[in-house]
């Protein structure tokens, strides 16, 4: 990753991406991957804030991509995110696959739009690649460059508001994440204590009709602190102090009618894991 800046915005981009400056935006483009995909990240100049942030994000999506973000079946539904960065800015993210009906696997373009309110201005960033599953840059399975870019983003006029006690209140509660082979759970207390558990499942084919399933469980307890957009975990036993960059936001998959809390922790070199708040 390499640091770069556009005006009062700084961030990291992937090594090897080209940078082209246009009158109305700065565009970063990836090399063409093995599947023929060329990804782009576009940083626009700051613009004056208008209306509320959610409506502004939808209007800017229509302006940039020339399509309606809230269209439904047979077209893919958008996934919406809203949150407040500990670094001092509120944001809305619109993520949508475009270019055809849902189910055209590998043929659709995936678009991500981030609109951040920084004082009286809006910061705007757009990213495009293939749709999330096969995408090699901003996908859900292989390329997860978006998370690293988001956590590196800095607006020089923003004022950090990550007071440890305030964010401990926001984090308080239990959070869970599950995949086909692993389950993660972490609970935060307002007094700065945490408890975590991870269970990783392994499947071994013993014969044509028999599969052996084993589960490795790992538990940890300790104290945590928040500084900027990072959480530091200090376990009660052993060394192993770890630092995770985080974002705490809400997600909607029904065009903004309902929202669910989401906590994402990024480990450098390993990727991001996102948790949902236990009900």
Describe the structure in your own words.
There is one protein chain. The protein is mostly beta strands. The chain folds into two domains: 2-155, Jelly Rolls; 164-277, Lipocalin (Beta Barrel). It is 10% helix and 50% strand. It contains three helices and 19 strands.
Describe what is shown at a glance.
The chain has two domains: 2-155, Sandwich (Jelly Rolls); 164-277, Beta Barrel (Lipocalin). It is built from three helices and 19 strands. It has helices at 53-65, 145-152, 164-171; strands spanning 2-6, 9-13, 18-22, 25-29, 40-43, 47-48, 79-85, 89-98, 109-118, 121-130, 154-155, 173-178, 182-188, 193-205, 211-227, 230-235, 242-252, 260-267, 271-277.
Provide the descriptors you would attach to this structure in a database record:
279 residues, Jelly Rolls, globular, eight-stranded antiparallel β-barrel, mainly beta, Lipocalin, three-stranded antiparallel β-sheet, 2 domains, 50% strand, 10% helix, single chain
Number of β-strand runs: 19
Query: Helical content, roughly?
Result: 10-25%
The CATH architecture of the largest domain is Sandwich
Strand order of the largest sheet: 12-13-14-15-16-17-18-19
Average pLDDT number: 84
What is the structural class?
A: mainly beta
**Uncertain runs:** 199-203, 211-219
Total number of domains? 2
CATH topology of the largest domain: Jelly Rolls
N- to C-terminal distance: 37 Å
Topology pattern, helix = H, strand = E:
EEEEEEHEEEEHEHEEEEEEEE
Treating each run of at least 4 consecutive H or I residues as one helix, how many helices? 3
């Amino acid at each position: 990753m390499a640091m770069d800046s556009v005006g009062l915005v700084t961030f990291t981009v992937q090594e090897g991406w080209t940078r082209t400056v246009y009158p109305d935006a700065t565009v970063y483009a990836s090399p063409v991957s093995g599947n023929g995909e060329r990804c782009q990240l576009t940083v626009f100049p700051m613009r004056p804030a208008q209306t509320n942030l959610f409506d502004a994000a939808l209007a800017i999506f229509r302006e940039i991509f020339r399509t309606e973000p809230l269209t439904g079946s047979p077209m893919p539904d958008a996934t919406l995110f809203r949150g407040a960065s500990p670094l001092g800015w509120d944001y809305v993210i619109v993520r949508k696959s475009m270019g055809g009906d849902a189910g055209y696997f590998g043929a659709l373009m995936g678009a991500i739009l981030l609109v951040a309110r920084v004082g009286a201005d809006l910061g705007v960033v757009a990213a495009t690649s293939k749709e999330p599953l096969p995408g090699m840059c901003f996908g859900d399975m292989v390329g997860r460059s978006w998370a690293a870019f988001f956590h590196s983003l800095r607006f020089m006029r923003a004022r950090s508001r990550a007071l440890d006690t305030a964010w401990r209140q926001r984090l308080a509660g239990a959070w869970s994440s599950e995949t086909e082979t692993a389950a993660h759970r972490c609970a935060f207390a307002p007094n700065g204590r945490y408890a975590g558990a991870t269970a990783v499942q392994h499947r071994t084919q013993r014969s044509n009709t028999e599969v052996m399933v084993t589960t490795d469980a790992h538990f940890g307890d300790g104290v945590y602190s928040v500084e900027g957009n990072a959480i530091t975990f200090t376990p009660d036993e052993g060394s192993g102090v770890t630092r995770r960059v985080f974002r705490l936001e809400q997600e909607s998959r029904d065009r903004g009618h309902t929202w669910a809390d989401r906590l994402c922790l990024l480990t450098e070199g390993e990727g991001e894991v996102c948790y949902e708040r236990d009900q």
